[in-house]
Write a structure and sequence with these properties.
Elements lengths: L1 H15 L2 H4 L12 H4 L4 H7 L6 E4 L6 H11 L3 E6 L5 H18 L3 E6 L6 H12 L4 E6 L3 H4 L2 H5 L2 E4 L5 H15 L5 H11 L3 H15 L5 H7 L12 H15 L3 H13 L4 H16 L5 H16 L4 H14 L5 H16 L13 H4 L40 H7 L1
Parallel strand pairs: 1-4, 1-5, 2-3, 3-4
Helix pairs in contact: 6-7, 10-11, 10-12, 11-12, 12-13, 14-15, 14-16, 15-18, 16-17, 16-18, 17-18
Length: 419
């Protein structure tokens, strides 16, 4: 009787499951997206189809198909398939799974694939417990993570796994998923509604199907734009201040200002602020960029960046986003020069490699005590003798060295042309 009740419960659970769960693809032919790793003849597609899957890490944002791919592997493989979530699994459970895998392999020669969802949630000790079994072939590990595995997964595990990076679904791919969902719900959706859901889903198939299902429930049938708007009040933001999204958006923000694209700069600024990035961190990066990438081509850039950082402390968010935006746009539009950056790097390199070369005696301390040693003798005061402006003040062994080389941009242009 218990089996009958279990079967009935399972059937009812499947009927009541979210649309995204009911529509989860079971074969590669049903799978939508990720053609860069699943194209015909690709390594991953052949490995799945031929049941030759090796340890792998599926890395990508939510709704990109990581778990679905693992389940497709489970459906086609002749190996036993075990699944754990790193959110709740313990080291003891991992060891139990490995013990079962070792028993299968020894008694029946049958392989085991262990799927570990959210593998980045495992600490070092938990990941270390997997390593011997992966290394000796007792298990084939498939890990799924939304975090950059090169930050979060042990290098020993990474070296024994193939990393596949999955990407957010493209608008045309999301549209296919949405229309499949509409067919499952038996509702009609207009192109306008599909486009609205695509825009709000952020490349996430699960989110797209959730919006569709909520919209159809609210409409009692075919959803309209108002239902989509009501079902997606705030677009999900995929951002982890401690993970790769932090580094990716910071990099894009800096490179956009460096590349003089104010529109991209203010967009990435908005994306970081809306996602909860530390505004002080953003302000510090702008102060650094003002000297590193603009320098004396526009000396006011540093003043603007520092003023924005000070305004942030006085005003606070959300109002200080205006100060940060003004500064980001100014920095993006400013003429660019990395001459100061290059100069200090080259000078530091010489100091590290050759030590502190002593200043010429004429430049040393000219106080009474210094003069007793002959210091200051021969110094030419530039305001009294203009030839003092033409002297090479570097240490004797470095004379003729040029660290600061002005570029042909902004206020450095005149120096460049005159130099």
């Amino acid at each position: 009787m218990s089996d009958l009740f279990s079967d009935a419960a399972r059937e009812r659970a499947e009927l009541n499951a979210p649309l995204a769960t009911r529509l989860r693809p079971r074969t590669l032919d049903e799978f939508v997206g990720q053609t860069h790793v699943l194209a015909e003849g690709s390594l991953l597609r052949r490995a799945i189809a031929d049941d030759r899957m090796r340890s792998a890490i599926f890395y990508g944002p939510p709704g990109s198909g990581k778990t679905t791919l693992a389940r497709i592997v489970a459906g086609v493989t002749g190996a036993a398939f075990e699944e754990l979530s790193a959110v709740s699994a313990t080291v003891a459970q991992v060891r139990e799974a490995i013990a079962r895998a070792r028993e299968r392999l020894g008694a029946h020669g049958r392989r085991t694939i262990l799927f570990l969802d959210e593998i980045h949630r495992f600490n070092k000790a938990q990941q270390d417990a997997l390593l011997p079994a992966v290394e000796d072939g007792t298990i084939t590990l498939i890990g799924a993570t939304t975090e950059n595995p090169y930050f979060e997964v042990n290098s020993a595990l990474l070296s024994r796994s193939q990393v596949y990076e999955l990407e957010p679904l493209r608008p045309d791919e999301l549209a296919v998923v949405i229309r499949r969902g509409a067919a499952e719900l038996k509702v009609d959706v207009s192109d306008e509604v599909v486009a609205a859901i695509v825009e709000r889903a952020g490349g996430d198939a699960r989110t797209a199907l959730s919006i569709l299902e909520l919209s159809a429930d609210a409409a009692g049938g075919a959803p309209e734009l108002s239902h989509v708007e009501d079902a997606s009040r705030k677009r999900p933001l995929v951002y982890d201040k401690g993970g790769d999204a932090h580094y990716d958006f910071t990099s894009a923000f800096i490179k956009s200002m460096r590349g003089s694209d104010p529109d991209a700069a203010v967009y990435y600024l908005a994306a970081m602020l809306e996602s909860g990035e530390d505004a002080r961190f953003i302000a510090r990066r702008m102060v650094i960029l003002a000297s590193e990438d603009i320098g004396n081509a526009d000396p006011r850039a540093l003043m603007v960046a520092v003023a924005a950082a000070q305004a942030l402390e006085h005003v606070g968010l959300p109002e200080a986003r205006l100060n940060l935006a003004q500064a980001a746009i100014y920095l993006a539009r400013a003429p660019k020069s990395n001459a100061s950056y290059v100069a200090i790097n080259e000078a530091s390199k010489d100091v590290r490699e050759s030590g502190n070369a002593r200043p010429p005696r004429s430049l040393r301390d000219g106080s009474w005590a210094g003069r007793q040693l002959g210091n200051g003798e021969g110094y030419v005061y530039p305001h009294g003798d203009p030839s003092g402006f033409e002297i090479d003040y570097l240490p004797d062994e470095l004379k003729g060295r040029k660290y600061y080389r002005p570029v042909n941009s902004g206020e450095e242009k005149e120096e460049h042309d005159g130099g």
